[in-house]
TrEMBL record:
Membrane topology note: Multi-pass membrane protein
Primary location group: membrane
Claim: Transmembrane helix is one of the keywords in the record: yes
Organism: Stylophora pistillata (Smooth cauliflower coral)
Function: Scramblase that mediates the translocation of glucosaminylphosphatidylinositol (alpha-D-GlcN-(1-6)-(1,2-diacyl-sn-glycero-3-phospho)-1D-myo-inositol, GlcN-PI) across the endoplasmic reticulum (ER) membrane, from the cytosolic leaflet to the luminal leaflet of the ER membrane, where it participates in the biosynthesis of glycosylphosphatidylinositol (GPI). GPI is a lipid glycoconjugate involved in post-translational modification of proteins.
Protein location: Membrane
The protein, known as: Lipid scramblase CLPTM1L
Amino acid sequence: MNEKVEFERQAIPSEVYPFIRLAPNSQYLPVLYIDQLGVIYRYLKPVNKSSSEMKLKINYSPISLGKLRIWSSVHHSLKSMKDLGFTDKDLDDIRGIFTDTNLFLLALTFGITVLHLLFDFLAFKNDINYWKHRDSMVGLSMRTVIWRCASTFIIFLYLMDEKTSLLVLIPAGIGVLIEVWKVTKAFKVNIKWEKGERPSIQFGQRTSKEKETEEFDSEAMRYISYVLYPLVIAVAVYSLLYQPQKSWYSWIVRSLVNGVYVFGFLFMLPQLFVNYKLKSVAHLPWRAFMYKAFNTFIDDVFAFIIVMPTAHRLACFRDDVVFVIYLYQRWLYPVDMKRVNEFGVSYEDQGEDKPHKD
């Protein structure tokens, strides 16, 4: 540390105290900090018995008091994360964020992380609130809901198989639970549990408008299947013949996730087709959509910072296109007073004393 700093003996900062060495005359020696954050496992070179000598390069540079305190706090935080169960690979990914980027980009990353967590929370909150009050599937693609659930689960299995960072894995796991719950709401699943009897599962009845939406949904899915299924099978066979696989389970998961990442956006098209047929987007949870759209653009930034599989990185950019199409439909089909809102009720049904401004 090249700064001249004076501390009272009883008021030395806890981050600096471990690095202070006292001389016999009670004066402390210059502070020397060994940057352990720069030791990243993926940069280490293996040493075998035939290696008689290795080159050792030592970089020396002055450090400010503020940077020393921040680096020391981060080092202790990584130790705490390891005690909580984070793997060495997860900690290595976090170290890479601090050591492979400059301070400006690091500060930008921190700000983006805070925004990402905020939008994640708001998206989850509004999505749950929307589906909690949703009693009708009018205008919503049932197959898109099922596909979102299945694809989220497949991606979660793939991320686990690739030993991806918990920073990516934990939100994916939470997303799986939410998608499963949304499927139960879409099918109007009701679990009846009476004393002395086994629990029974009941499905709700569908209205005529819901059946009309389902017909549009089925028509769109029929067109998509002509393209999707042959492509997924072809990619799976190519992967089996020309790419090394860890196991049959890994091949199945990778084949499914390749279908999700490369052709998964096709399963979002039924909802776009339903919107086109109904000439309305009033039934969609737009508040949750917008938070997810913001997070999608933030994911584009994270795709270059956090270590993740290449296919998962490309999927972040694919979602941008889908959200742009949704926004175009929002502009093309403006909400009027006769169309149903996101809870299946028209604005006219709410009474003249509650006007709505779009």
